[in-house]
Protein 1
Amino acid sequence: MVREFEYQGETFRVTAHGVHGHEEIFIVHIEEDGVEGAEISIDRMTEENDTSAPIEAILVMLCDKLIPQSEIKVQNPAAPFAWREGNVVFQVHDGLQDTKHD
């Protein structure tokens, strides 16, 4: 899965693969100009974590570490986690790539 989300008024991108509770998860902060910034990751197969927690809870936990470590000045500290709807350029089904037509 590659998907964007917002937390504390900031945009992040998650790349995750694996089965629930045992994913490798990478997040990157997307800066205002669209440039990829600071990043953090967790391997839920080997690192201590609650393997029953939903991925959203793990993303919040990672953001709560990344924001102070990277001195990210958040836009809105009270803003909750929310998935973003992105611009889908390609849809993959049965291993074949299909260009989305508008």
Protein 2
Amino acid sequence: MTYLFLYIVGVILIWWTYRVGWLEAVKTVVKVIVPSVLIILFNIKAGRLLFKSPLVGLLSALPTSIFIFRGSLPLVSYINNWIENKVNNYDDSEVIDTDSVPLDD
């Protein structure tokens, strides 16, 4: 069952990448993965500390997930800006500006 879920997620990611381009697909994946990982890690740790069971921590995820999601927005924005800067990092000094000349002249 897990392999079927991962297969479907993989097909959806490939389709999404084809539809919007790889840069937007990576940004969307970062927007989903970073808060999700932070929420899961926090609730497992809180479940162990408070309830001595990580399962109870995962079940109590809803109240804390809102705060963690909003708190992770600056980190997501930073990662997305870093990705965009790495992709758009080209030197303008090597670009030659030219004018178009019609074929009639």
Protein 3
Amino acid sequence: MTDQPQGSDDVTWELPARDRRGKLASLGLISLGLGVLCWLTPFVSVVVAGLAIACGVVSIVTRREYRIDWTAVVGICLGTAQLFFELVLFAMRASGL
């Protein structure tokens, strides 16, 4: 017996993200941790935000048989928000505000 309903052979089934195995399994958690860390480190926040985004993207695009890891998505969002915040601060400094 299979877990798929009868007559739905064309549907692709995805495994939960928590069931990932191997070295790439923790990239979502690393992305989330770096995303939080980039808001706490004022001097290297751009670098840490870039690493958070990179780890999250690698976690999402590899192992497509698994669902998207919510920790990777949150890490990407936090890193992107930090980069946007730094861009706004840079624009304010450049304009003399």
Protein 4
Amino acid sequence: MRPLFISLVCDFCDGLEGDDAGWDVGYVVWRGRPMPVNEYVFATREDGERWKRALNMKDEPILLVRSPVKFRWRKSTGTIKDVTTADGLVTIFADRRFPPGANRAYLART
């Protein structure tokens, strides 16, 4: 006899392993685009509000995101000064079932 199939499971990817209590958090101005999507992630809700106002956005909610890898924060120096964002765009997923890595997060349901 020979084995025909190999089955693997990833408890992390399936959302079964552990909780996300130790994960880093940030905020995103949610425009409702299909996921996964690259977005700016802000250190605080207030930073997201300042960026949103500067772009004349009105109805977009600011949502919490969680990442298994700590964000590297930086202060903006462009048109909108002193807004703290993650260093680079962050890929946002619908839930925590994604391969872990830098600049990846998911929308946290609160």
